[in-house]
Each structure stands twice: as structure tokens, then as C-alpha cells.
Amino acid sequence: xxxxxxxxxxxxxVSLLSVAKDVKVSSPDGALTVTIGVDGGKAWYQVxxxxxxxxxxxxxxxxxxxxxxxxxxxMGKVTRLSLDETWSQPWGEDAQVRNHYxxxxxxxxxxxxxxxxxxxxxxxxxxxxAFRYEYPxxxxxxDFVIMDEVTQxxxxxxxxxxxxxxxxxxxxxxYTREPVSKKGNMSGPIALEVNDxxxxxxxxxxxTDYSTMNLSHEGTTLKVDLVPWKNGDRVRVGDTRxxxxxxxxxxxxxxxxxxxxxxxNLNDPCKIExxxxxxxxxxxxxxxxxxxxxxxxxxxxxxxxxxxxxKRYIDFAARHGFGGVLVEGWxxxxxxDWGRYGDKFNFTQAYPDYDLKGLANYxxxxxxxxIAHNETGGAAQNYENQMExxxxxxxxxxxxxxxxxYVNPHFYNGELQHSQWGIRHFRKVIETAARYQxxxxxxxxxxxxxxxxxxxxxxxxxxxxxxxxxxFDRAGGNPxxxxxxxPFTRGLGGPMDFTPGIFNYHNxxxxxxxxxxxxAHQLAEYIVIYSPxxxxxxxxxxxxxxxxFKFIEExxxxxxxxxxxxxxxxxxVVYARQExxxxxxxxxxxxxxxxxxxSLPLDFLTDGTRYQAIVYEDGPDADYRTNPYPMTIxxxxxxxxxxxxxxxxxxxxxxxxxxxx
Length: 661
Ligand code: NOJ
Ligand code: CA
Hints:
The chain is an alpha+beta fold. Helix content is 18%, strand content 35%. The longest helix has 20 residues. Calcium ion binds next to loops.
């Protein structure tokens, strides 16, 4: 009894003391509150939504090369700031983005010893909270090494988490759902289903000159686990004096997570002064036939990147309104074990059967641009050595996009792709490309963190299990629910070069492989998966005489506004997107292996305008396992009072054009 009383008194004293020292910042709508405090030298934060605990007290700080920087703090000065601005982006899911937050900057001051200080900046938005560290230059904290970031996210309950394992090569893993406590180490973004009115995602934003954030956990408490350099250093801090943002997106519905623009808002404004050359476009390419092992990247009888093949693809692109043709396997370096000996790649010398200059001209004359492919085999230093020359050459030829690739999880000197070395490399590529007016599509890249706001020439990244797995994965390819979870996880960081649009599922070379979706689902991917420059990934002959191809020809890739009428993590997603600069709308919906019916009120359409709806939907008896191809295309007149009833087959989808007249 006495002991209990003592404990109760202790608790009261501690909480009174801490209440006196704690500082708070709330979201503009007042719903979310972050509290920051220091107890016994240790700094912590906590997030509440009204009375509901979102993140329990969680520590902040670091272990540095020369010792702890985490348990000797007192709170120093606190400054506040609020911002409500709307900015526009050259391409994106919305033309205008509102950036509205309250900020609290807390100085943590070491009480003794080095007496160094560390700033933590919190931003509370209506759709979540974020924070980052800043390291003011000072005696005792010049250039330094981070051995560990102690940041945690203590979840009050054992939420269901959607994630991929931390060391999955290139992030090309299948997202799975388990309680947090049952997970191994994870890569972000992770999506959380907490309860019927609480959905979350945890991710990093603006990953610049730092190493990637993975998450380990003890029970339901997640902890930042930074990808190390080879010698064990996690981050070497020099001129960049801020960490990436640690962002917690919070919504009442699953759809709220998809509509959050926090990741973009936490990145710096565009650094490219004149973005008029940043013009993403749909593309076709000499590619899927290699994935199906019909053609080769290397020289030989089945070499894909020949002048004749490229001309066919360019002609097709010009005929069907595609702005780009990707050509893989055009340059020297593919003839051996290229994933191992990437330093053999030459990025300016074409194979003898590929007329680099002639084809670039041939394309340009037809209003098409070649997308140059630069596979590095992970030999990133070899790439850096040639980058300026290669980009100068491409620019002079009118090539306006480069697809990069890194098939080897180790970079120069054995450093990991997602280490600080790798992150610096990926950024160097984007910035160098911008100087030569080149757009970048990055395969096997960093986990996107919203930097496309700052560098809109980064028009796409893979960093997920793309469609290609359906060509080579004998274990079954991507499960039908894959596209129902990608937007909630990987998609939060930036556009996905998923390469949709496979029409012919037949593959003799790698038996047992094929998309695990219906054909209508393949069309819906153009809307559900966001990219400003989608590919029509199949071999062009598979599109001839296919009525459904019209949808791919006509679907835009730049949007005015995005809505999400229906969504459940890993089960189904229905998007409605308004075409940029017009009154036309496009709807895309996908489901997992469960057939589903949706009722879709078109009340978002403009009042007084009538639309022609063209609905591409699963035909009778369509089923992704047994009967993937049947599709019905129906036309009807609609307006904002119409309610569409949509049926999606198992593994199915629906894609709709709403054309204003
Ligand atoms: C993997 C990439 O994801 C794929 O698109 C490319 O074709 C191969 N690497 C070869 O570079
Ligand atoms: Ca890949």
C-alpha cells in the first residue's frame, strides 16, 4: 500500500515536472498534437489525436562516433512558425498542393560535457506530423559521424502493418500484412491499419546526403535503423546539416493516406528554374521481349536493340501518339556477366547494329524521342566517370530521358545501394541530368522520398516489384493484391515506373509466368499506379487490333486533381483523376483475388456538363486465374447525378474515360 502510494506520488511529481517543461504544437485543424519534452536528460515526443494515443513517448537523439548525443539534454529555446501556402507542380496527381502546418523548433542543449546543441523541428499538418534534426555548426560538432539514430515510433497497439523486409534487394518485395510485433526489420514506407478510424503510414521525406531509414522494432515500438557504410558508420555529416524528415501520415480512412501530400510538402521547392523541357510522356520500348527471354540485351542472333527493331518501335510510337521509345541493350557492356562486371559498360558507344545518331534523328523527325538506357550493373563509379560525356552526347542527339539501372545491391567499393554513398550517387545523377535537360527514370533506385518536388526531372523510380516479375518469376509473379497495396506504401514517395499494359500473357520461354490480373486490371493500372510517364510495356505486335489499346493511347498522365472514392489497404483501390487542364475525368479501380461491386456516384463532375463515359470492364466470367482476357467496353451518357455500378472480377479491374462535351 505504502509502496503504491509512493509510486503514485512519484508519478504525479514526474508528470507535473514534465508538464511544466513540455511544449506542444497542434495541427491547423487542432486535431493532432505533438508534445515534446525532456526527462532525465532524454528528449522525447508523443503524438495524440484528441484523446487518442497515436505515438506514445518515443526517444530522440543520436549515438555519434565520439559518444552519446541523447541523454544529457535540457530544453533550450523554442520557436514557432506557421505556414499556409499553395504551390503548383509541373506534373503530378494534383496541379496545386496546399502546404499548411504549424511548426515548433526545439533546441536541445547538452547540460555538461561538450555542451553541444541539437535542434529538432516538428511540423503538425492536418494529415500527419513530421520532424527532422538540424545540426548547427559549433565547436564540438563540426563534421561528425552518426553511429546510430535513436528515433523511435512507439505504437500504442499492435497495428497491422504492410511492409517489405528491410534487406530486400532493390525493394522488389511483396508487401505483406502482419501485426507489427510479428515483423522482422522493415523498409519504409510502411502502412498501418490501427483501427476502423485510424490508418497511418511511416516514411521518410527528403532523403538527401543521408542513409536510408529502415525500421527495426521491439514489440510494437519501431526504431530507425540506418543503412550503414561498409565500416559501420551510418551517416557522415559534413555540409548537409539536416536529417531527412521522419513523417507519420495519419488518416481516418485508408483513402486519406493516398491523398496526403506531406511527402511532397516536406521537400524543398523546385530547383530547376525553367521546367519547360520536363515533359514526361507515355512510351513503348525494346524491353518486354527481353524480359520474356525472346530477345537479348547482348549481341547475337536475337539482339533486340537493332536499327530495324528500333525503327519499328518508333513508327509504332508515332502512329499511336507515344512520345518515347525505350531502347535497352544498345550500348557495349552486355556481353558477359554484366551484373557482376558492370565496369565494362560504356555509355556512349553503340553496338554496330544500332545506329545511335541516325535513330535519334529518325525518332525526332517523327515527334518521338529515344529513351536511352544506362544499366550500370551497380558499378556506380564507372557510371559517374562517364556521366557528363554520356549526357552531353544524349542531349546533343535530342534524347531527353535516361532510364538508369543498378542490378547489383553493392556499389563502388562494396558500399550498399541504400547507404549514404548510394544516396549521394543517385542525387548526383539527377542533378547532372538536369544540367543536360534530361529526365531520369531510375530502376533499382533509392526509396523515393518526395524529392521529385525539388527535381521534377526525376519522373519515375522503380524500387518496387514491377510488372517485369510477371515475365521472369516462376514462383507466380506479383499477387493480384499487389497493386492494391503499392499506392499505400511505395507510392507515397513518388511516381512508380511499374510498366503496365501487358495484353499477351503467353510466355513459352519462361513457362508458368504471366500477370496475375485480368486484362481490365492491366488498363486500370494506368490510373491506380501514379506515374507521369507510363509505359505500354508489351511488345507492340500484341497491341495491334486490340480495342482495349485505345484506352492506353488516350489515357493522360498528368492530373489536375485526384480523388479516392473507395480504398482498403491490400484489398481494392478506386481512383478518380481529372485530366490536367481539361474537364475530362478518368477512373481506375483494381481488386485483389475477391470479386467486388462498387457503386460510384459521379458527383465530382462539373455541374451542368454532360460526359460520354467509356467503360472498360471485366467481361462475363472473367477471372484472373482461368479467364483473364474477357472485357466489355460500353459507352453511356452521364452527368454528376449518375451513379455507376461497377463489377470487378477476381483479380480484376475497371478503367473509365469520362469525356466532357
Ligand atoms: C532491371 C530493370 O528493372 C529492368 O527494367 C531492366 O530491363 C533490366 N534490369 C536490365 O537492365
Ligand atoms: Ca528491377
